[in-house]
């Protein structure tokens, strides 16, 4: 067995052991895989690609899984035009907090809590963003926390609701919730653990979908130019039309809702294990298009994403890696068995 095959087998072991509580028969799966994709079957290798998505080596801290994937029909046709799916940003900045007209950079902090009389920041140091505790009023000013690329942030609201903001995301909320509503507005992605209050529903406002809950745990993803998704981990949520307020769907645990290109809300089963992984500091994709994986890497490492051949963006694979690792190690391992080439060139990830 050559070095590449040994590395592939290792990656398979790592992925399976991470995903499943009981260790599968990796040897049996590996033998089955080789039987289907052996080097003595040239016709098979023309129809199938073997994809490794992650790395070996504790220093790099990447882990991944090996999968096989049927090529998309027509993939052997002529080359298509280049496609830019994400732009590099010249200036990234820091997490910022805005209250009324005051704006403060939260450099060095990873969380803020609004539960006590004064604000408290992560790592046990006070966050000097408010001199007096918020008081209820008829028109409470909105506060905003915004994350740049490459950073996540945790917020604890005054009712005890916990929110994890992913990179390039923004959440707005009042200084004090009213007795009638707990309403926040989200752009980007966030994971919510909503404090239960049967008398005052919690509402997350988005561009196409609103989410209403009493107390639950869920993930919302609604970046600009992407179809919004809501995945429920615990409890129950209602999906509302953001324009009419009409209830479009009610989710049970392990279900997700999303808007199709026509704006229709659809419901399907969700992989809540995968949904939670970014909160745990992981990239995790299960049978995802390459374009989705590279856009997420680009958003985290502030790299543009360019496909020289746009057809490659729909190639599907499994991928998992620590977000604290170096992006070049992950790109290197993505190239192990991909027929096309992925490189970091300057401020872009380029797929040839």
List the helices and strands and how they pair.
Layout (H helix, E strand, L loop, with lengths): L2 H17 L6 H12 L4 H6 E6 L11 E6 L12 E4 L9 E4 L2 E4 L5 E3 L6 E2 L20 E5 L6 E4 L5 E4 L4 E5 L7 E12 L8 E4 L3 E5 L3 E6 L6 E6 L2 E5 L5 E5 L3 E5 L5 E5 L2 H5 L5 E8 H12 L2 E4 L8 E7 L4 H8 L7 E4 L2 E4 L1
Parallel strand pairs: 6-9, 12-13, 22-25
Antiparallel strand pairs: 1-2, 3-22, 4-5, 4-8, 6-7, 8-11, 9-10, 10-12, 11-12, 12-15, 13-14, 14-17, 15-16, 16-19, 17-18, 19-20, 21-23, 24-25
Description:
It holds the Pfam family FecR_C. It comes from Segatella baroniae F0067. One of its GO terms (molecular function) is sigma factor antagonist activity. This protein is of the alpha+beta class. Among the domains are: about 80 residues, Phage tail protein beta-alpha-beta fold (3-Layer(bab) Sandwich), CATH 3.55.50; about 160 residues, Jelly Rolls, CATH 2.60.120. It contains six helices and 25 strands. It has a 17-stranded mixed sheet that branches. The protein has a four-stranded mixed sheet with strand order 3-22-25-24, with helices on one face. A two-stranded antiparallel sheet has the order 1-2. About 15% of the residues have low confidence.
């Amino acid at each position: 067995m050559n070095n590449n095959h040994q590395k592939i087998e290792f990656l398979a072991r790592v992925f399976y052991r991470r995903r499943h509580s009981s260790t599968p028969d990796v040897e049996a799966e590996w033998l089955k895989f080789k039987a289907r994709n052996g080097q003595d079957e040239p016709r098979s290798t023309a129809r199938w690609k073997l994809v490794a998505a992650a790395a070996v080596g504790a220093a790099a801290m990447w882990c991944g899984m090996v999968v096989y994937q049927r090529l998309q029909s027509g993939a052997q046709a002529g080359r298509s035009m280049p496609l830019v799916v994400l732009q590099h940003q010249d200036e990234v900045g820091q997490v910022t907090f805005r209250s009324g007209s005051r704006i403060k950079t939260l450099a060095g902090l990873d969380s803020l809590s609004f539960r006590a009389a004064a604000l408290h920041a992560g790592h046990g140091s006070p966050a000097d963003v408010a001199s007096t505790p918020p008081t209820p009023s008829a028109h409470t000013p909105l506060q905003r926390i915004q994350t740049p690329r490459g950073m996540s942030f945790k917020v604890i609201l005054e009712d005890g609701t916990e929110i994890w903001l992913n990179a390039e995301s923004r959440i707005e909320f009042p200084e004090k919730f009213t007795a009638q509503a707990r309403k926040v507005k989200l752009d980007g992605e966030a994971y919510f653990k909503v404090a239960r209050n049967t008398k005052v529903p919690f509402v997350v406002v988005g561009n196409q979908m609103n989410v209403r809950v009493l107390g639950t745990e869920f993930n919302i993803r609604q970046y600009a130019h992407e179809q919004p998704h809501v995945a429920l981990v615990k409890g129950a949520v209602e999906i509302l039309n953001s324009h009419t307020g009409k209830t479009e769907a009610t989710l049970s645990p392990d279900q997700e809702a999303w808007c199709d290109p026509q704006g229709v809300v659809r419901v399907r089963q969700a992989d809540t294990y995968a949904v939670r992984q970014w909160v745990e500091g992981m990239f995790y994709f299960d049978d995802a298009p390459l374009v989705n994986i590279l856009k997420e890497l680009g958003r985290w490492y502030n790299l543009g994403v360019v496909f020289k051949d746009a057809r490659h963006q729909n190639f599907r694979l499994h991928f998992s890696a620590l977000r604290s690792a170096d992006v070049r190690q992950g790109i290197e391992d993505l190239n192990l068995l991909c027929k096309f080439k992925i490189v970091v060139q300057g401020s872009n990830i380029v797929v040839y």
